[in-house]
Amino acid sequence: MKKIDESEVLNMASTIQVRVEDELKSKSDAPMTEAEMLAKLEKSREHGMFRDADLVVSDMRLKYGL
User: What distance in Å separates the CA atoms of residue 2 and residue 20, rounded to the nearest whole number?
Assistant: First the structure.
């Protein structure tokens, strides 16, 4: 049986933590607060990636049955 030293354990724990954090960040279906939504919209505007508001509202109504 192979012995695992402390640095290997710490490295594995760090790798797992990064993977979990990345997965949490990539959850596009996670609910957003109003402040998070506004911040995301502002960031999109800064980068020139935006859509017509009427289309966004229409998509949200279809997706969430509003």
Answer: 27
